[in-house]
Design a protein that fits this description.
This protein has 318 residues and is α/β, with parallel strands linked by helices. The chain has 10 helices and 13 strands. Helix 7 packs antiparallel against helix 10. Bound molecules: zinc ion (ZN).
Length: 318
């Protein structure tokens, strides 16, 4: 078998028995680095494959806050909350409300919310489809990869919401990001932690076992590894283009930024609010527990348990 090295630390990576994607007769497996614990998809999609993924409206409709044209009104409240969170963090680190950049801005709804706070807001997205929609809102936005766009180099605050896990070359991306921000700038990042056990799952395990027992189903130890239905589905290869090229745990996320010379100045692991597509009565147990733990982890972190992470970094200049 071909030897695969970690994208970041270059140590040997092993193929994992779970995760990955299958799409158009191609298998994209999930690998784990034995040293820095980063998980990544291999082979990586080509730039043509990436372009076709993000210029396809079905991708934007599959996400929850991704900024699809048809649901943006529904999610305005979420963008407002995200904006408040960004402003709170920026104030905490004494970041002046000057030049703000969002990479992965989709159709620009978060930028609209932040326009009144920062002196200028600029957005970038790899999807030309989304950038066209953002332009119609009068925003200064650019389509493409940051390495290829001629951006100003004096940003004071950068936001990467659910972006990092989509990057094919994270080392080059963050290397370039250092060049376009000011010395004391802040980069605020949100990432999903797909394979992290979140507290709700710990309570779901006995609940689901009991439900199965009452239905006369035989107990399978495997069900203990991936407690909820969604977690179990993640155990199979997903049948769509590879969206998440990187998978983080809280530990591997911190290690990743340290390895590429960024200082983690703040981080928080939490349980996200349930996605709207799960708003169904039959999911009452899942929804109920997730809402409870979303509240708990908002105010009191539960070790490193959660399905999302906020991580704030600053460049370490050599
Ligand atoms: Zn590694």
């Amino acid at each position: 078998m071909e030897e695969i090295n970690c994208l970041v630390c270059k140590n040997k990576a092993q193929i994992l028995p779970f995760g990955g994607y299958q799409y158009q007769d191609k298998i994209y497996s999930l690998y784990g680095c034995s040293f820095c614990k980063l998980r990544f998809i291999w082979p990586q999609p080509t730039s043509e494959e990436l372009a076709s993924t993000y210029n396809d409206l079905s991708y934007w409709q599959s996400g929850d806050f991704a900024g699809d044209k048809t649901n943006c009104e529904l999610y305005r409240k979420q963008y407002r909350k995200d904006a408040q969170k960004i402003i709170k963090i920026a104030k905490r680190f004494n970041i002046l409300p000057e030049k703000f950049l969002e990479i992965g801005c989709a159709q620009g709804d978060l930028l609209l919310e932040l326009k009144s706070y920062f002196k200028s807001v600029i957005g970038v997205d790899i999807s030309e489809l989304m950038i066209e929609l953002a332009k119609k809102k009068g925003l200064e936005v650019y389509a493409g990869e940051i390495e290829k766009i001629n951006l100003p180099s004096d940003f004071t605050c950068v936001y990467l919401g659910d972006l990092v896990e989509h990057l094919p070359d994270p080392v080059s991306f963050f290397g370039h990001l250092k060049k376009i921000i000011k010395d004391k700038s802040l980069v605020i990042i949100e990432i999903p932690l797909t394979y992290n056990v979140y507290p709700a799952n710990l309570f779901l395990a006995p609940l689901i076992s009991l439900k199965n027992f009452l239905k006369g189903k035989i107990f399978k130890p495997r069900s203990l590894y991936f407690f909820s239905k969604t977690q179990r589905e993640k155990n199979k290869k997903i049948e769509h283009p590879p969206y998440h090229l990187l998978e983080f745990t809280p530990r591997s996320a911190r290690a990743f930024f340290n390895l590429i010379s960024w200082q983690v100045v703040y981080d928080k692991v939490y349980v996200g609010w349930p996605k709207r597509k799960y708003y169904k009565l039959k999911n009452w147990h899942l929804l109920g527990l997730q809402i409870i733990f979303s509240f708990i982890t908002k105010y009191a972190p539960l070790f490193d348990l959660g399905d999302r992470m906020t991580i704030v970094i600053r460049p370490i200049k050599k």
